Amino acid sequence: MKPGWSDAKALVLALIWIPSVLWCDRFVNLPGQVVLGAITWALLIWWLVHETPTVRAQTAVVVVLATVVEYVFSGWLGVYVYRLDHVPAYVPPGHGLVYLAALAVGRLPVVQRNARLAVRTTIVLAGAWAFWGLLLSPRHDVLGFFWYVCLLGFLRWGQSTLLYVGAFFVVSYLEILGTGWGVWAWQPVDTIMGWVPMGNPPSIAAGGYGWFDLYAVLLAPVLVRRWRVEQPGGVGP
Question: Are 21 and 40 in contact (CB under 8 A)?
Fold first, then answer.
């Protein structure tokens, strides 16, 4: 990480960016969303300048996978729908910023020093939310509970446990604001199988998002090695 840049500063930036862009989206049309997208891409690129090649590769994997999922599950299948019925231009780079924010949470010294407590706290908070959605919420949330099970698996067997801790807090923050302000909405029942009830948002959306994180961690080293080999004078690992 370059001098003058820290995970704490980056996280504050992300936590300000998320409500700012979502609030603005409530009032803009398509051209306005394009402007928000350009600003978000600029912010993402600026952040990545301060990161390592591996983190840049991880972020690229997340952006590509998440963008495909957005256009398939929102744009095509309508599992969740955006305010203007299309995927906003800021969403693809936004996924990169969300990933970096989750990574920043996991790299904070206070989180590193209290890793076990951070994991246990995440399990308890996520579990309370998931069971509330499954058993008590007026809107039955089976998908959220399934994603809670996924999150438990990532926390138990994942290579970057604290990344998933960060993802829980950042993605939950994003989903609560986005659905609360009407930027997007989840259908009451999934549109694929037609019988899985979903909250708005599903309680542990971070458990679904964790699949992006998993592939990012697994694929990034391969991409970095391939890039170095293909450069002039590059050598294999």
Answer: yes
Distance CA 157, CA 188 (A): 31
Q: Which residue range is the domain that position 84 belongs to?
A: 7-229
pTM over cut 0.85:
yes
- What value, to the nearest 5°, has the Cα angle with vertex 88 and ends 86 and 90? 165
What's the half-sphere exposure (Cβ side, CA atoms, 13 Å) at 31? 0
Q: Does residue 94 form part of some domain? A: yes
Task: Name the nearest CA neighbour of 191 among 78, 50, 75, 34.
Answer: 78
Closest residue by Cα to residue 43 from 66, 27, 29, 59: 59
Q: Which two tokens stand for residue 146?
A: 């399934």
Q: How confident is the model at residue 231 (pLDDT cuts 50, 70, 90)?
A: low
- For the segment 177-190, what is each residue's pLDDT rounded down to a tens digit? 999 999 999 999 99
What total of structural domains would you count in the chain? 1
Mean pLDDT value of segment 206-215:
94
Residue 67 CB neighbour total at 10 angstroms: 16
Query: Which residue matches tokens 């960016």?
Result: 17
